[in-house]
Design a protein that fits this description.
2 domains; mainly alpha
């Protein structure tokens, strides 16, 4: 649904354009003959509005049937959302608009990876997320910091650490510690003793 909303909102120019585009996009859902070659008759429009409607209609007609079917399904889902759910979708759409192009591309790539996962893999990720959310905030903060430290290492060092961890897991023993027990990475303070 988000992809459709993004495409519709980018194509529209202002509120009038959005209304006209919505009308043109949704008209095939409402008209008995969705194969009509021209947009549905409406009340008289200003020439600029009429031109925008014609353009939107032509864009709709040029979409492949599968894309139009997907947009119709998304529209039907939108119609069944509560006002609160619609507002949440709008908020997410606005948050996406504020992202840089690189951030949006990273999200798209993550979505493509998610869509490529099996149901079992998706469920495993959901369990991991629930476990993450159940952690105390201090523990999440600590783990984020450890991840940043890992991420900032050289690729060779990260590979060596992964191989070490894999080898110790396969042997059923905990991995070797790089720091003495009770101490984190260099420069980190020792946790307070109770």
């Amino acid at each position: 649904m988000r992809r459709t909303l993004g495409r519709v909102s980018r194509a529209a120019i202002g509120l009038a354009g959005a209304l006209l585009l919505a009308r043109a996009t949704c008209a095939p859902l409402l008209l008995p003959d969705a194969r009509a070659e021209s947009p549905p008759a409406t009340a008289p429009l200003a020439p600029d509005d009429r031109a925008r409607l014609e353009e939107a209609w032509q864009r709709w007609r040029s979409l492949p049937p599968e894309e139009r079917a997907r947009i119709r399904r998304n529209f039907e889902r939108w119609q069944h959302l509560s006002p609160e759910e619609r507002e949440a979708v709008r908020d997410r759409q606005e948050a996406l608009r504020r992202l840089s192009p690189a951030e949006r591309e990273r999200l798209r790539e993550n979505l493509r990876r998610w869509e490529g996962l099996s149901d079992a893999e998706r469920e495993a990720l959901r369990r991991t997320l629930r476990a993450w959310q159940a952690l105390p905030p201090e523990e999440r903060l600590r783990l984020r910091e450890e991840w940043r430290e890992f991420r900032d290492r050289s690729p060779a060092e990260r590979r060596r650490l992964r191989e070490t961890l894999r080898g110790t897991r396969e042997r059923g023993r905990p991995g070797p510690r790089q720091n003495p027990p009770g101490q984190g990475a260099p420069g980190r303070r020792r946790p307070e003793e109770p």
